[in-house]
Amino acid sequence: MRIKEAVFSGSSLRVDRRPLPRLPEFAFIGRSNVGKSSLINLLAGYGNLAKTSSTPGKTQLVNHFLINGEWYLVDLPGYGYAKVSKKSQESIKRIVWDYISNSDEMMLLFVLLDARHELQKIDEDFIYMLGEEGIPFSIVFTKCDKLSSGKLALQSSNVKGKLLEQWEELPPVFYSSAHSRTGREEILDYIDSIFKTIKH
Ligand code: GTP
Ligand code: MG
């Protein structure tokens, strides 16, 4: 898929306040600092469309980016950032679940996992809830540039193995690096393939 245009269309705290018009949405979630905003910038092909930061907790709202005037990339606030208050963690959780469980336009949720780490309890719990709620998702390992290819293969097969203790099969899994700009074509092609199933 070619991205000809990517524009920020607005931030919201509630799903019914999302920017209009309603169009298909592909959303990105994961622990704070995992690289959601960076991946959105990589996919969109624009340097700093979504604001990124080395300090976790940068994205606090649901941000919509309109692509080719036809669909949205949706940047969600990260979960699991221990340094913010319990109250603000709860409020982020509410914002995220309100969006993912109530957006009729969300075609797929990409769950991002840092390729360097074992599967964390918070990610496992989050993915489990997606299953319970029947929310379609796929997995993206981020920051793959930080590992050798051997270590990446080992690490990702550990994580997949852990998930397979809970799931009979896994959704598609992608490998990305915003730094070495890898994974872009694969993810965009997958988004494109989902569009094709909608149109038929
Ligand atoms: P919050 O909005 O705070 O939840 O974070 P986020 O998940 O949007 O992460 P963000 O994209 O802001 O990136 C966090 C940090 O990780 C930044 O310092 C990025 O430069 C770095 N980063 C993101 N993606 C990659 C990557 O693929 N490789 C490397 N090496 N660093 C990355
Ligand atoms: Mg962010």
* Proportion of residues in helical segments: 25-40%
Largest sheet: 7 strands, mixed
Residue runs with pLDDT of under 50 for 5 or more positions: none
Q: What's the gyration radius in Å? A: 16 Å
- The number of E-state strands comes to 7
Which strands sit side by side, in order, in the main sheet?
1-3-4-2-5-6-7
Strand composition percent: 15-25%
Separation of the first and last Cα atoms: 18 Å
Q: How many H/I helical runs?
A: 5
Bound molecules: guanosine-5'-triphosphate, magnesium ion
**What general form does the structure show?**
globular
Query: Which class best fits the helix and strand makeup?
Result: alpha/beta
Question: What is the average of the pLDDT values?
Answer: 92
Order of helices and strands: EEHEEHEHEHEH
Word description of this protein:
The chain is α/β, with parallel strands linked by helices. 35% of the residues lie in helices and 21% in strands. It is built from five helices and seven strands. A seven-stranded mixed β-sheet has the order 1-3-4-2-5-6-7, sandwiched between helices. Helix 3 (121-133) links the parallel strand 5 (106-114) and strand 6 (137-142). It is globular, with a radius of gyration of 16 Å. The protein binds guanosine-5'-triphosphate (GTP) and magnesium ion. Guanosine-5'-triphosphate is lined by residues 32-38, 52-54, 56-59, 77-78, 142-143, 145-146, 177-179. Magnesium ion (MG) binds at residues 36-37, 58-59, 75.
